[in-house]
Write a sequence for this structure.
């Protein structure tokens, strides 16, 4: 056994306090149980092992990626376990804890400045360009998460776990969109088992591009890149819910206080949207969403900072 065997098989619990009467049950997967405290460990393991398997990543190569933090920490963990150097392009728009965690796991960081700490389309494109330049150096492998189909396969197991833990009693799956790999991977598995299941995805209301709106700055880290992600597959999605940054932050605080679930901002957004879906489906239904990462990654942000 090594650390990579600890990825996956996370717990599922039912929300008890924040769900009003007359709603469907809402079940949440505790993805912070993965080794770096995030669901992204699943995709990191998939993209590295698949690239090793077909020779795109060779012994001694340096892994390159652009990331808001959780993917970077997950890739750094997998690279540490497998012995690859890793260089990560990130930004001051993302929490200091995420940057520190990436560095602690051995990543060499390049930071791209943001506009006032906000996630914008320009920032994402600047980060991608910086990573592309690094990838031109010899003996590098650029995981390029926004375009990497391998990351979708990393979430098939998550779909299998959800199906098995609910014993097939699931009516909707709700989750935020960053690269779209996780919602697509889970949806692929769940729709195979139950074609009528509702897959509902979330984007920041300030940057509601999937619903045809204009890109805009927001502070829901790790989601809402400002344009339709290349891995997006509309055929698997039954609805898109816009959630405001402030509502996502407030729900993250509420589920910490009222449910004892200490999660990040996108998890707050997941619960906001899951409540809307649960209200619509009514008391006989079951809705599943994800606690995508741990609140420990946000202690120095305005989500949780107490002083």
């Amino acid at each position: 056994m090594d650390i990579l065997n600890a990825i996956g098989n996370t717990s599922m619990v039912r929300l008890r306090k924040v769900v009003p009467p007359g709603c469907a049950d809402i079940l949440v997967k505790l993805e912070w149980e993965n080794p770096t405290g995030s669901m992204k460990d699943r995709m990191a393991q998939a993209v590295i092992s698949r690239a090793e398997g077909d020779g795109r990543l060779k012994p001694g190569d340096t892994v390159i990626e652009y990331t808001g933090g959780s993917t970077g920490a997950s890739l750094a963990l997998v690279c540490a376990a497998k012995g690859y150097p890793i260089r990560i392009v990130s930004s001051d728009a993302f929490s200091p804890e995420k940057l520190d965690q990436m560095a602690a796991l051995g990543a060499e960081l390049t930071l791209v400045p943001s506009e006032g700490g906000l996630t914008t389309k320009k920032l994402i494109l600047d980060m991608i360009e910086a990573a592309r330049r690094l990838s031109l150096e010899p003996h590098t492998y650029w995981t390029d998460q926004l375009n990497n189909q391998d990351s979708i396969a990393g979430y098939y197991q998550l779909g299998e776990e959800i199906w098995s833990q609910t014993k097939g009693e699931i009516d909707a799956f709700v989750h935020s969109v960053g690269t779209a790999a996780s919602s697509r991977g889970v949806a692929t598995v769940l729709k195979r088992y139950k074609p009528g299941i509702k897959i509902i995805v979330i984007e920041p209301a300030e940057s509601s591009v999937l619903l045809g709106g204009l890109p805009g700055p927001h502070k829901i880290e790790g989601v809402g890149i400002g344009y339709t992600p290349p891995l997006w597959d509309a055929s698997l999605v039954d609805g898109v819910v816009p959630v405001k940054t402030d509502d996502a932050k407030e729900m993250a605080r509420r589920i910490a206080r009222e449910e004892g679930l200490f999660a990040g901002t996108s998890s707050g957004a997941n619960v906001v949207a899951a409540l809307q879906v649960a209200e619509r489906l009514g008391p006989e239904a079951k809705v599943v969403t994800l606690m995508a990462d741990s609140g420990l990654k946000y202690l120095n942000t305005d989500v949780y900072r107490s002083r």
